[in-house]
# Entry
Amino acid sequence: MKHIITILFVLLFITNSQSQNNPKYFKTIPLLNNETPEWALLMYSENPNVGEVEKLFKQYYKENSFVKNIHTQNHKYWMLQIEELLNQNGYIQPLTKQEEDALFQLQKEKYQQKNRGNKVSDSWEAIGPLETFSTNNVQPISWHKNIYAIDQSLSNPDILICGTEAGGIYKSIDKAANWSLISLGEVFSGGNSSVKIHPTDSDNFLISSNNRIFQSLDGGVTWLERHFTDGTGNEFEYAPSNHNIIFHTSTAGLFKSIDGGITWTQEFTTYCFDIDFHPTNDQIVYLLKSNPGAKKSELFRSDNNGTTWNLKDNNWYVPSEFENAIENGGKIGVTPASEDLVYVCLIGQSKEGDQGWIGVYKSLNKGDLWTNPTGQDGAPYGPINGEDDWNVAAYSGGYHQGYYNFDMEVSPTNPNKFWIASIRLTESSDGGLTYQSIGAANSTRLDYVHADVQDIEVRENDIWVATDGGIDYSDDELTTHVALNRGIQAAHFWGFNTGWNEDTFTGGKYHDGTSGCFEN
# Structure
């Protein structure tokens, strides 16, 4: 009876929810014009009928060749986000927090009932994909596990955690040689977009999932919901001088805790992309925040541990054509090799003709004065891996995915070297004057780095790269790398079927094609 009441409660709220679309259902929203297909215009509209979108989509590609572009990728991602939110008339009805809470509680109760006194392994066994190898069948490669975020413990470098797209938080206690799921029975299915380990307590974890902040104080054995942010998390950052102070950037703004993550307050309500502390002055912190009215991201600096903030915009980026500008966000890069140096990598569109890449801004004095090393914002783009400014964020045809695949880190020993994550892995070794693709599309160095790089983490000599394919590790500043994914079951299946005349299993995945498993 209790479960029936809970289900009716959820269905009642779903019935009464207001239909609406949401920008978070898309990877990035481009400028729309007369060339945008009718199905895409309807898809981006405020309250689309999804059945009508699908009808127009199929009709369009009966008459036109299918070419992968931002609209088609958005369509696939959009369908993934909304498929459980449709009412009987084909309109999107997002769940409220109360509806989600009721649904999550029901899911946890069902899990606990089914597995009371038993282990899941008594009834379920993972059969694949377990590991992917290169064509020589010897070298493991990252080719089937979409990892959104990764962090390595400062106090115990053997301990790492990562968050996956398909649902689940994984932990390693042997420096990524093996991974185990630590969120079994939890409802971390909303992207797991940022993860963090306490600087001195390697059992204290923070994660962002399902528009909420969760915390574990026992190494992932149990989890506590701490705060509903109503946004997708980007970064957690502990204050070096006081680990009770934590900042969290999110699509919903900037959040701050002063009691070690137990309670949170909202400091800003506009999209906050990144936050970083000065490498040696623990009172100085940098924040990259959206200014929607100006269609640009802006750098703020606090000199008092985040109590007050000051805009640092001397010689800062301004869109060339406001009417054609798009803000996709940015990332901050700092390094102990040059303590007052700050890099900010900006993506979006400054003018018509730009395709996702604006460029890097650089300050030698903590943001008081900025320069653009190449002297150019956005297009015209030169050839990939050439000496001229080229499109770091996109394929040669211009396709990019905005902030969905994006990060930046600076070498801890060489202030002129930094890495950018986008659809590829890119390196600059001259402070942003020139770039080389070192992984994925057009790579000049590393084989088998998967496209769509989500996260880069640098911990002294250790560099971790998380992609749509998995986790890669380097201890020589990405001169070489190895794939370390054993134990992570994070392939994101959209379809599944079995053979009729032998034990054959086939699954179609959101990323990385199709997987098959057969008895012999």
In short: Confidence is low (pLDDT under 50) at residues 1-17.
